[in-house]
Amino acid sequence: MKNIISFLFLFFSVLSFSQTKIVSWNLENFGKTKSTTELNFIANIILDYDIIAIQEVVAGYGGAQAIAQLNRILNEKGSKWDYIISNPTSSSSYKTERYAFIWKTKKARLKGSPWLEKKYHLEIDREPYFATFEIDKKAITLVNYHAITKNKQPETEIKYFKFLPDEYPNLNLIFIGDFNCPQSHSVFNPLKKSGYTSVLQNQKTSLKQKCKNNYCLASEFDNIFYKINSLNYKNSGVISFYKTFNSLQEARKISDHIPIWFEFSLK
Fold first, then answer.
1. Which residues, other chains included, contact 121 with Cβ-Cβ below 8 Å and sequence gap of 6+?
2. Spacing of C-alpha 215 from chain mean position
3. 226 with 165: CB under 8 angstroms?
4. Are 57 and 99 within 8 A, CB to CB?
5. Is the pLDDT of residue 10 over 50?
6. Residue 45: which of 193, 206, 238 has the closest Cα?
7. Cα–Cα nearest to 54, from 19, 98, 91
């Protein structure tokens, strides 16, 4: 009986370790305007996940410093974390920003140097940020992205994503971030036809200015796309952090988007 219990403990420990949980969060205007209290709140939201993809980090002074401070706060809460921040995107016509990744070092290892997309940096305003992580001796490459706003027609740049799997044929790409566009849009059809699917369907992820009849979410903007034959899907969802605040006005000091998450194991 003792041997059976030990085996089951080992089995579930291995099973737990083999599963990875990723969070993506557009942390609106993430920089020096975020207070220590707000950074602590954000840290507590993401603490139980393994890799964090962040969009809308301020490109100028304050953005990189806020990511470093968030990483320090996470390190004070029990696990060892590391982080990487992109250079500012090359946007000339719109708002340049940075991307960031934060990860638990016991769960993932950064492989090589992350990079901003080079080939389509003129076609994609805030070109995506690629980072390859080794998990359980297998690799995934997260493609962190923040599209131009809906009124600027993000589909005009998202259409170039269909070329990225062929541009990087040896990488297991996972597209993650704020697309400012629902997954049901036809611009995603080429990716879907090549074997990709989204973790969320019909799930709104941006906050309204005010709740109306208890409906507080506005649009289906944030998502994660992965290749079906490369991962074992376990679970996914959103984190409705705004419910802990008395009003959306207070919640929006954290962000105008809610975090989305994806749990999986590698094949």
1. 89, 90, 127
2. 24
3. no
4. yes
5. no
6. 238
7. 98
Beta strand 109-116 with 129-135 is antiparallel
Q: Over the stretch 230-258, which tens digit does the pLDDT of each residue have? A: 999 999 999 999 999 999 999 999 999 99
Return d(Cα 228, Cα 230) in angstroms, integer.
Answer: 6
d(CA 167, CA 190): 15
163 pLDDT band, cuts 50/70/90, is very high
Q: Is pLDDT above 70 for 13? A: no
The pLDDT value given to residue 183: 98
Q: How confident is the model at residue 18 (pLDDT cuts 50, 70, 90)?
A: confident
Q: Find the helix or strand (DSSP H, E) in which 41 lies.
A: helix 36-46
Q: Which two tokens stand for residue 267?
A: 């094949």
Mean pLDDT for all residues in the chain: 93
What per-residue confidence (pLDDT) applies to 93?
A: 59
Cα separation, 219 vs 208, whole angstroms: 9
Q: ∠ CA(82), CA(87), CA(88), 5° rounding?
A: 130
Integer CA distances (angstroms), 59 to 27, 95, 127, in order: 13, 9, 14
Cβ neighbours of residue 72 closer than 8 Å, sequence gap 6 or more:
none
Q: Are 23 and 264 in contact (CB under 8 A)?
A: no
Q: Is 98 left (phi over 0), alpha (psi -120 to 50) or beta?
A: beta
Q: Say how far apart CA 189 and CA 192 lie, in whole Å.
A: 5
